[in-house]
Amino acid sequence: MEESHKKILQRNRVSLVRDLDPSKLYDGLLEKGVFTQDMIDEIKSSGTRRDQARQLVRDLETRGSRAFPLFLECLQETDQHRLAELLQNGAPTVQIQPVTPTPVVRPVVQPLPISPPMDIDKQRKDDVPVYPIQRPSTTPSPSPERDYLRPRPQGRTRRDSIQSYKMDASPCGHCLIINNVEFEPKSDLNNRNGSNIDCDKLERRFKALNFIVEVKTNLKQKQIKHGLSALSKKDHSQYDCCVVIILSHGTEVNHNRFPGAVYGVDGLHVPVQHITNYLNGHYCPSLQGKPKLFFIQACGGGEKDTGFEVSPDEVEPSIGGADDQTDAIPMSSSSDSLSTSDEPDARATLPTPSDILVSYSTFPGYVSWRDTQSGSWYVETLDRILDENAATHDLVTILMMVNNEVSQNSAKGVYKQMPGSFNFLRKLLYFQTQA
Description:
The chain is α/β, with parallel strands linked by helices.
């Protein structure tokens, strides 16, 4: 497909996902050779109408130069005129070139030799046997331009057809936000000014994504554990997803799966790997096979990242200033960085907690920056990118966008921050968005 047409599809992706009725298009797209039957079957199996529309538009960009105008024809033929006009606005006029018909080669019929009946042993040596002439294949190739495609082995899944999680329950699921702002004097931890801004943003955002949001403020260690235990005991069978967001001070701890820990307001911490265990398939059976998402706005340690020099073309204007604070606490183990006991994290023999994603505001071992006036870099960026892209992009792609933007920031003009995630999801995850 021409680059200009791809840009038109990308520019109008939100409207297409929201309004397109793919079921009306399948016959026309198949008849016109835009898609093969296998491709249409895979689009149908991708999930809800929105999921099918999203997959259809994505696949459409991979087809030939005739795919875009043929798609417009199908929209007109199925009375989806508004979308057709939307795509035609600003699009260069395209003349659909007729496909050169493939000549059909007919076999030449050879008459059989006439000879008197005789025994096979006495058949004359000069009789030439007649073999059937093989017909050339007249099966049309799947591309609109009749490009040759190598056949796929049977049963092999296309790389671009990764399944998506079911995310159409209403409500979609529970979202627990733990917002620790005011810490007890005995904890020796500073209050986290600006955290309420983060909390308000995320509460509004996940309500807009159709979650039941519960906010708990200023919890001690035991109260954090009790809140997670109560969440794990809920019946999630009618929901599709569960989200836990923790805004607090953090530290680095020894671990064998998920790094880091978050603090209660009493100065006692809960390891992240214990937090995720509350919702795994063993302790919460009604969430088996469903995505469990954890967003941690806390430091992973006490190190400050000063970054490294790059080409000016790779750096966008940064934000951050004198009001930036960290959520860092010195690590609770005796070493200054990851200890040798952490190395087994890289071994393939460790159990994999399926359907869990933990998104950290910063790389393990480093501080996480928070502006006392506008909130943390990570949450501010996450909220905005979800607002702009949740309708069209999957969660992992969205988190990569967050990583990129936060990495451009500078605290006090010197320090950097790099978010990251531990991803054990098995499928693509698309949030619900308002139509």
